[in-house]
Fold this protein.
Amino acid sequence: MRVISGRAKGRRLNSPKGTNTRPTTDRVKESVFSIINFYIRDSKVLDLFAGTGALGIEAISRGAEYGVFVDNDKNSIEVIKENLENLGFQRESSVLYCDVDAAISNLSSKGEVFHIIFMDPPYLKGFIEPSLEKIYDSNILSDDGIVLIEHDLKDILSENIAGFYKYKEKKYGNTLISIYKKEE
């Protein structure tokens, strides 16, 4: 697993030991970032269920201003911190060791707003819709921002969820990438 493009292009990322994380493949990551490339420059990104931090790190490498990484697994948090340190991205990032609901509440109470929110939750566990509802209710996504969700093909998402509409969907094998925007 590596950084595809930008300042850290070609640099390898560490992964947690064990099977608790399912890192986004380079092929999927490359395709995803070609779709959202025009959103990245000078953006603030939130990487929920961050795992290795690969999606947020890719965004920072490509010009995002700042990234917040959230995971509730201690090993993942250690790996994210290692990856950020190895790439020299510590000043452009922060890492939260907590569950997604707590992180969203915390960020909302601080008035944080993001242009891109990445979600790569454990597949088929029912995290997506409640997390989207929490994001919408907390108002942490900018009006022109996107929520990009990596999920299993079997995890069918509604066209409209909690004030969001499905803007785009792309299939990669058994993985779907769904992009949501706020309804106008």
Q: What stands out?
A: Strands lie at 44-48, 66-71, 93-97, 114-119, 141-152, 160-161, 164-172, 175-182. Residues 26-182 form a domain with the Rossmann fold fold (CATH 3.40.50.150). The chain has five helices and eight strands. The longest strand covers residues 141-152.
